[in-house]
From TrEMBL:
Organism: Bombycilla garrulus
Any single GO CC term annotated in Swiss-Prot or TrEMBL for this entry: ribose phosphate diphosphokinase complex
InterPro entries referenced in this protein's UniProt entry, alphabetically: PRTase-like (IPR029057), PRTase_dom (IPR000836), Rib-P_diPkinase (IPR005946)
Full protein name: ribose-phosphate diphosphokinase
The gene coding this protein: Prps2
Cited NCBIfam families: ribP_PPkin
């Protein structure tokens, strides 16, 4: 996935390989690639307590990144998540509005959201009418 996104954006990429001992506990993180003097964008499907993503941000900054952003599909943000984000090196943590974020944004100014209601509505409409949903991969409704 990383290679595909980087190719479409015509940018270089690095990745963080994480190994888990058990759920919600990262044993080891290894940065593969060079982020020196670059803006780093962490991409993930969801963040719950944000321990992993904040650890990844620290790793990127210590490896020489100039700024770190996170883009997440689902921001669950439970337990210590907001405190961790506030204290982490993030410029911003951008999530979709699959989960309401207004209250959490009041306590964590780094959180921003992208409204995806139009694309979800179009996907539902296309499914209902038997039309191609994969069309939306290259034609996003605004």
């Amino acid at each position: 996935r990383v290679t595909s996104i980087a190719d479409r954006l015509n940018v270089e990429f690095a990745l963080i390989h994480k190994e888990r001992k058990k759920a919600n506990e990262v044993d080891r993180m290894v940065l593969v690639g060079d982020v020196t003097d670059r803006v780093a964008i962490l991409v993930d499907d969801m963040a719950d307590t944000c321990g992993t993503i904040c650890h990844a941000a620290d790793k990127l900054m210590s490896a020489g990144a100039t700024k770190v952003y996170a883009i997440l599909t689902h921001g669950i943000f439970s337990g210590p998540a907001l405190s961790r984000i506030n204290n982490a090196a993030f410029e911003a943590v951008v999530v979709t509005n699959t989960i309401p974020q207004e209250e959490k944004m009041k306590h964590c100014p780094k959180i921003q959201f992208i409204d995806i209601s139009m694309i979800l509505a179009e996907a539902i409409r296309r499914t209902h009418n038997g039309e191609s949903v994969s069309y939306l991969f290259s034609h996003v409704p605004l």
